[in-house]
Design brief:
With about 475 residues, the protein is an alpha/beta fold. Helices cover about 35% and strands about 25% of the residues. It folds into 3 domains: about 1-75, MurE/MurF, N-terminal domain (Udp-n-acetylmuramoylalanyl-d-glutamate--2,6- Diaminopimelate Ligase, Chain: A, domain 1), CATH 3.40.1390.10; about 90-310, 3-Layer(aba) Sandwich (UDP-N-acetylmuramoyl-L-alanine:D-glutamate ligase), CATH 3.40.1190; about 320-470, Protein-Tyrosine Phosphatase, Chain A, CATH 3.90.190. A hairpin with a 2-residue loop joins strand 9 and strand 10. The longest helix is centred in the middle third of the chain and has 16 residues, at about 285-300.
């Protein structure tokens, strides 16, 4: 808590207990900041915030006299970042901040680092916020600024000296991360995504570049030399630029690897020495993901021999090539793959290790770019024996229209159309026979289904588990 007079040059010592931008979440003692959202001007909700207990209001235009202090600033969105940092005593200065961006692999890389660093590290991203054995779901990969800094403070107070966070392009686009200076910034890869927000691929890449622009002068920008935008990121990056990949010039070179059904054996070259790493993570895409995470730990001064020991203890990452442990006669895999590239990668690996059929359940989110759908559908139809197309956060779109888009890229007919996602998953599990692989893709461990403007309780994992508890 802080006195209002500590936050602003105002003769008022009332205690401020928190910062809120959602009037419905305001509690007694909060300061309400009237930011400008994508579709809402929060100046319109001042009276509701005051009714709910707001002790002060921050505005950027005249709102008339209120019965609580009103502080006027030029830009409430910019002010929110400054106020949050000050209120929570600049938590970013008290921890090593690692940011991970890219189209695919963000969650996996951030989770690997979180696991490898243990209790000294906190994680925030698609899989929620985690630290010291605690876990809590969050709505966005990167929360709004008021929550983000509150979480940072929570992590630091718990004794975490490192925070590993997924840094989404949308978060940079919304300027949520503008004031953060990263000790380590990691870029996984870039393929087409989120063009509903960015409009062009160039804009999307530029937002991704913002992560490495914000790396500290003495920090590290970790780049993927195999990515087609490597040179662009290298040009924009700040700090010490290091790379991972398959080239002799890479700081961490992937010499070769062997993919097995239950593990991956990788030879890395670092500082002219070769190291064999046995990873429980499956698939060639996880070779790259692990490489970037290992390089992050090397940048933190941890020895390669110590890293090898820690890698062997990596646990399954929720919603990322997650094999359901309660199924025995066939394999059920839960994965967040929702782009053409991600689906291609995972299905290529499954095709290589399969003993029988691949049955895939997938869809495509509504309110997102439609141009990627035919390519997604083509990949899953060509690399699966059977596909069940279903809903995946349709929002305001008709799920059947989304499925029409998905099947338009191929003339194959090896699919079913079942809009209800629970029924679709049950159908796939009904179809499964000995040694089959059932891939349920798109939502991972998300705990909601976005329909219209509502977030309804839903989780693929819970649906899968319920099937076997009948």
């Amino acid at each position: 808590m802080k006195k209002l007079s500590e936050l602003y040059n105002i003769d008022d010592d009332r205690l401020i207990k928190g910062i809120k931008i959602n009037s419905k979440e305001v509690e007694n003692g909060d300061i309400f900041v009237c930011t400008m959202g994508v579709t809402a001007d929060r100046h319109d909700f001042i009276d509701e915030a005051i009714k709910n207990g707001a002790s002060a209001i921050v505005v950027s235009r005249d709102v008339g006299k209120k019965n609580v202090p009103v502080i006027k600033v030029d830009n409430t969105n910019l002010e929110l970042r400054k106020l949050s940092a000050k209120f929570y005593d600049y938590p970013c200065d008290k921890a090593c901040i690692i940011g991970v961006t890219g189209t695919n692999g963000k969650t996996t890389v951030a989770e690997i680092i979180f696991q490898l660093l243990g209790d000294a590290c906190a994680y925030i991203g698609t899989n929620g916020k985690k630290y010291k054995g605690k876990k809590e779901s969050i709505r966005n990969t990167c929360p709004d600024v008021d929550r983000l800094y509150m979480y940072f403070r929570e992590f630091v107070d718990a004794g975490c000296n490192t925070i590993c966070m997924e840094a989404s392009s949308e978060a940079f686009y919304r300027h949520r991360l503008d004031d953060i200076r990263y000790d380590i910034g990691i870029v996984t890869n870039i393929t087409e995504d989120h063009l509903n927000i960015h409009k062009t691929l160039e804009n999307y890449v530029d937002c991704k570049c913002q992560l490495v622009r914000q790396v500290k002068d003495d920090g590290y920008s970790i780049l993927n030399s195999s990515d087609k935008y490597f040179d662009k990121f290298k040009k924009e990056a700040n700090g010490n630029i290091v790379s991972y990949g398959y080239k002799d010039s890479d700081t961490l070179k992937i010499e070769d690897y062997t993919l097995k059904r239950d593990k991956t054996i990788i030879n890395f070259k670092y500082n002219n020495k070769t190291y064999e790493v046995i990873s429980p993570l499956l698939g060639s895409f996880n070779v790259d993901n692990l490489a970037s995470a290992i390089l992050a730990l090397l940048c933190k001064g941890i020895s390669f021999d110590e890293i090898i020991k820690r890698v062997s203890n990596i646990k399954q990452i929720e919603g990322r090539m997650e094999i359901m442990p309660f199924v025995s006669k066939y394999t059920v895999i839960l994965d967040y793959a929702h782009t053409t590239d991600a689906l291609d990668n995972i299905l290529s690996f499954l095709d290589m290790v399969k003993e029988s059929r691949i049955i895939t359940v997938t869809g495509s989110a509504g309110g997102r770019e439609t141009t990627k759908r035919p390519g997604m559908g083509k990949v899953v139809l060509e690399k699966s024996d059977y596909v069940i197309f279903t809903m995946d956060d349709p929002r305001y779109e008709d799920p059947n229209k989304i499925i029409d888009d998905l099947v338009s890229g191929s003339d194959k007919t090896n699919y079913f159309r079942i809009v209800d996602r629970k029924k679709a998953i049950y159908k796939a599990l009904d179809m499964a026979e000995d040694n089959d692989i059932v891939l349920i893709a798109g939502k991972g461990r998300d705990d909601y289904m976005a329909i219209d403007d509502k977030y309804l309780p839903y989780c693929d994992y819970d649906v899968i588990k319920s099937y076997y508890e009948q």
